[in-house]
């Protein structure tokens, strides 16, 4: 287990305890640690605008909007929620940060907060309160939202697990009773599925969520974007081995994956075009809730598994992380912080996790006990997605550079180039090295 995974987070401090007993700003604390409460008094006439990514499961937005309504009824604060595709949220957030106008709160992805940290409201008091109350934040969440170890740039919301989604019947027909647990058998499975006329496929386009499998691929062979000193080291023997493997794997993909964005593999799987892919729980959710009887019947044949372990010998999970940022330009900072507090408290957050059907895994340890993870055993593999998450900037420190590399799809592009043969593995790695170095300037 890595040092990153062993870190203990949000340890209680005397300073925080003192602040809690005295109160901070307009926040109010209970003197009892186990029953502590915190509230922020919204400004008079406050109105909030929230920009968030569009739902991939209907229950997510239904439960989220039900909680928004409860918040407005409790506080009198009107809240407008705009939904945009993942690819659209990032540029709109950047424009808002640069112009100083737009949504008060933005729900975005990965470490986008590090693209404009000076534009974000400090929510350290709120983050520490929630961490203390709900068993602590997982290390990945803290790394994304508090990269300097001091100020919280926003709150973790969770992650959509990128796990293997597969048709049990098709794997068995190809000679696999269980899902492969190592890279060698994973490749054999893909070859066998293609030979049976039931190929698999994973996104190699600029897909915000589904292209994260390329991180797993590189890490599983011991490759990494940067070392612990933030020196770019992607052009390495380990990466070249990963890219050679990618060529063999890609040769067994269904055609067209080079242009796949996040919705494409969902559609291909539900249409019966592919037998295995990487995805959140949304494919299974859509099948279970489909009005089409044939699609609904498909749900019984769907199962989930974690990615196999590569030559490096340890799990190397990469998932789509979600954040919640309050823009510093907001006219209503207290209302914004109260909104985030309300949405993250157990009654609301539990309802949202259940409503989303397991699509989002919690960032706070206490919510591991939510019934959504055990009501259906096929949901359970997604429960620990944040707990086991490696940030895309592994193994360096997160910041503007790591966020920029992720936003520029440097790793997915490298894998796509090598896998498709448009560049040799060495050429693809060299190009990725040069592109990344432009972000990681000394």
Please describe the structure with a list of short key phrases separated by commas or semicolons.
single chain, three-stranded antiparallel β-sheet, D-Maltodextrin-Binding Protein, domain 2, 442 residues, alpha/beta
Account of the 3D structure:
It is a single chain. It is built from 18 helices and 8 strands. It has 442 residues and is of the alpha/beta class. The chain has 2 domains: 3-159 and 319-379, 3-Layer(aba) Sandwich (D-Maltodextrin-Binding Protein, domain 2), CATH 3.40.190.10; 163-318 and 408-439, D-Maltodextrin-Binding Protein, domain 2 (3-Layer(aba) Sandwich). The strands form 2 sheets. It has a 5-stranded mixed β-sheet, with helices on both faces. The chain has a 3-stranded antiparallel β-sheet with strand order 6-5-7. α3 runs antiparallel to α15 (346-355), α9 crosses α10 (237-250) and α10 crosses α17 (410-420).
Radius of gyration equals 22 Å
How much helicity do the residues have? 40-55%
The separation of the N and C termini measures 30 Å
List unreliable stretches of 5+ residues.
1-35
Q: What's a concise summary of this model?
A:
This protein is α/β, with parallel strands linked by helices and 442 residues long. The chain folds into two domains: 3-159 and 319-379, Periplasmic binding protein-like II (D-Maltodextrin-Binding Protein, domain 2, 3-Layer(aba) Sandwich); 163-318 and 408-439, 3-Layer(aba) Sandwich (D-Maltodextrin-Binding Protein, domain 2). 41% of the residues lie in helices and 10% in strands.
